Amino acid sequence: MKLIDGKEVAAALRKGIAAEVGTMVAAGGRPPCLVAVLVGDDGASQTYVGNKEKMSAEVGFRSQVLRLPDSTTQEELLAEVARLNADTEVDGYIVQMPLPRHIDEQRIIEAIDPRKDVDGFHPENVGRMAMGLPAFVSATPDGILSLLRYYNIPTAGKHCVVIGRSNTVGRPIANLLSQKGWDCTVTICHSRTANLPQVVAQGDIVIAALGRAEFVTADMVKEGAVVIDVGITRVASETTKSGWRLLGDVKFDEVAPRCSYITPVPGGVGPMTVVSLMKNTLKARRGL
Ligand code: NAP
Fold this sequence. Notes:
By secondary structure, this protein is of the alpha/beta class.
């Protein structure tokens, strides 16, 4: 069994991005510029945005966090979005989700200029991605592809079983892995799937993205399978200082010995997501 080390892969990709930015700047170019819009004071969102700001600086990007109060109206946020769309110094930006309840998230996503939509959530990018056209691919599926690529994990002709059909993880990763170049035969499972354990047991590659802690057990996993655990669930813990710990969707201790490769939680898919955002911002600077 080989552990897929997301921190190592993320560090390697960060290094590559920083080198490219260095070359760009040395040639007299402007560094890529990423803006994050944060509405309200949700603690988790502040942490995510803080990480994005820190990593932007590490790779040599210009970055800015636009902090707006919880009371911001939809019209005010749309005006900010229009301003960022028009700002030629801004290559890409994200509007951190979730937004306060009085704002329609989909309305905001659709107002973002698709050429600056480095989160890859705009329907134009989702559609282009689904058609295999150049697009901003959202962070989690892109991060999973980077892990498979880094470890040279064979995918052609493999049966990949994805558990979860969300627009942010399950559906896009299933679509991408079925495309030419990745060439998997893909099955998507969800909460209405019949005989789910038997279906998962057919997977050469299993991607667990359902958000149910330790759902995937050893009896569901074929000997030698590659297991990518996307799930993150915070559970109470008496053994950690914080009083909680993170669990994945896979019962790691019993599943790992059966796998050829497996991602841990934390330290697997998680570290990849911010670096994928950096990749997209660099792509936005160059032009899709
Ligand atoms: P989501 O929107 O809640 O979707 C969950 C999917 O799993 C749904 O399609 C649901 O089926 C399916 N599902 C739920 N219970 C199931 C069950 N018992 N059997 C089979 N399928 C079941 O979640 P998400 O946004 O995709 O996220 C999934 C997990 O990944 C969460 O733990 C989230 O925190 C984590 N995540 C991690 C990262 C990272 O950076 N590592 C990034 C994004 C998400 P239905 O469609 O039938 O309801």
